[in-house]
Amino acid sequence: MKPERLEEILQRASTKRLVVIGDLMLDEFVWGKVGRISPEAPVPVVEVSGESFYPGGAANVARNLREFTDRVGIVGMIGRDRNGDRLQELLARDKIDTTRCPISSEWPTIVKTRIIARQQQVVRVDREKIVTPTAEQIVGVVKGIKETVSEIDGIIFEDYGKGFLAGELVAEIVSLARANRKIVAADPNQRHNISWNGVSVVKPNRIEAFHAAAIPWEEPADSVGEDHALHKVGSILMEKWGTDLLLITLGEQGMMLFQRGKAPHHVPTKARQIFDVSGAGDTAIALFTLALCGGATPLEAADIANHGSAVVVGKLGTATVTPEELRQSFANG
């Protein structure tokens, strides 16, 4: 993609308003070093030097969008607890709109704690409780979207399988968005069976795609073009979900874009160094959807998402990509 075309898309995208709907989390990173093995058990002792907190889950998708546009909102359950307060403070600092988020004392804020020693993750500790929204909460969320849908350019459903994306909530918002001709994207979760009928694009990873297509897992072929199982999965999912676009992320092999009525297109990875793959999917769905809202073709959007993901996997922790980093990635080829 020529620099002029990239700038044109980014300029248009910077004026767009997007809303992310899904499972919100607080990501905690405990940093330190390992100097010895515990005398109590054969495990390393991490001497803590610091800790960091970031919005995680669906909130990380919003953070990626926020690097490119200042009109980003998020909808997800936040617990009425200390971690919920911290998450709201972080989102407010990033100027991400949380006014549509239900606050519940029955829904503890999800926290993922990663303990990092010398740039290596030692262990992850998850604190979560899977709870689905009440009928009243679903009505409130749908009402909030309906009142502002005319101002929204794109909606992203980010499903981490933690319960917020109830089928009824998704169906009502997709119907509302379609009626108003909005771009709707979905990042599915294999543990959560949701119908994505009617969305503009679905972005599973390879494992999620095989699971959704009910096809036995097969290891990737050396050549994506010769990966017949992957092509079969893509064809099945295009029909199952009735979507116009399907973007399957393939890790070190990049991405495969399926378009209705066209041959699948492989986008090879641009990653040069891989430190941490966590969050790469968040970046991919964020930039792909944002680029479409900015007037990019599906192939251009996939190229932008691919470059953005390549930047993020070269960072440690819950990371985002900036416009300048994206431009540099394209400049480096």
Provide an overview of this structure.
By secondary structure, the protein is of the alpha/beta class. It has one domain (3-25, 58-108, 129-331): UDP-N-acetylmuramoyl-L-alanine:D-glutamate ligase. The chain contains 10 helices and 14 strands. The chain has helices spanning 3-13, 58-66, 82-93, 135-148, 167-179, 206-213, 228-241, 280-293, 298-312, 323-331, and strands spanning 18-22, 24-37, 44-57, 72-75, 78-79, 103-104, 110-117, 120-127, 154-158, 183-187, 201-202, 245-249, 255-259, 265-267. The strands form 3 sheets. An 8-stranded mixed beta sheet has the order 4-1-9-10-11-12-13-14, sandwiched between helices. Strands 3-2-7-8 form a 4-stranded mixed beta sheet. Strand 13 (255-259) and strand 14 (265-267) form a beta hairpin. Helix 8 (280-293) packs antiparallel against helix 9 (298-312) and helix 9 crosses helix 10 (323-331). The radius of gyration is 20 Å and the shape is globular. The model has no long low-confidence stretch (mean pLDDT 93).
CATH architecture: 3-Layer(aba) Sandwich
Shape: globular
Q: Enumerate the strands of the largest sheet in spatial order, edge to edge or round the barrel.
A: 4-1-9-10-11-12-13-14
User: What distance lies between the first and last C-alpha atoms, to the nearest angstrom?
Assistant: 9 Å
Estimate what percentage of residues fall within beta strands.
15-25%
How do the helices and strands follow one another from N- to C-terminus? HEEEHEEHEEEHEHEEHHEEEHHH
Rounded Rg = 20 Å
Number of helices: 10
User: What is the CATH homologous superfamily assignment?
Assistant: Ribokinase
The domain tally reads 1
**Can you tell me the CATH topology?**
UDP-N-acetylmuramoyl-L-alanine:D-glutamate ligase
> How many strands?
14
Please state the structural category.
alpha/beta
**Rounded average pLDDT:** 93
What is the CATH class name?
A: Alpha Beta
- The multimeric state of the shown protein is single chain
**What are the low-pLDDT stretches, counting only 5+ consecutive residues below 50?**
none
- Helix amount: 25-40%
Main beta sheet strand tally, sense and closure: 8 strands, mixed
